[in-house]
Amino acid sequence: MNVAQNNYAEAQTIVDTLVSESEWMRNRRVAAIANSILNATELDEAVAALTDAAGAVVHRGGYLECAQHVEEAPLLSV
């Protein structure tokens, strides 16, 4: 076998494996189970809570940075 035939045979083996695995998952309704988990209300609520917490952290970080700049700024005499 030449290099092209070896590459084709290797690619075909990979494709055959993927087809077999996708059939196995389809037969066991893995996609439906995964979608049920991903569409769960609890997951939506957890993601919303994490998003809110992340926003609060970013806001606090910006506030602290601003406060630090104010403290470091030289006093202006009028």
CA-atom Rg in angstroms: 28 Å
Strand content: under 5%
Number of E-state strands: 0
Q: Please tally the helical runs, counting DSSP H or I stretches of 4 or more residues.
A: 3
Query: Based on helices, strands and strand pairing, what is the structural class?
Result: mainly alpha
End-to-end separation: 88 Å
Q: Tell me the series of helices and strands, N- to C-terminal.
A: HHH
- Overall mean confidence score, pLDDT: 83
pLDDT under 50 segments (min length 5)? none
Question: Could you say which overall geometry the principal axes of the C-alpha atoms support?
Answer: elongated
As a percent range, the share of helical residues equals over 70%
Biggest β-sheet, characterized? none
Question: Brief description of this entry?
Answer:
Helix content is 85%, strand content 0%. The N and C termini lie far apart (88 Å).
Brief descriptors of the model:
78 residues, mainly alpha
Write up this protein:
This protein is mainly α and 78 residues long. The chain has 3 helices and no strands. The longest helix has 32 residues, at 41-72. The mean pLDDT is 83.
How would you summarize the topology of this molecule?
Blueprint: H1 3-27, H2 30-38, H3 41-72
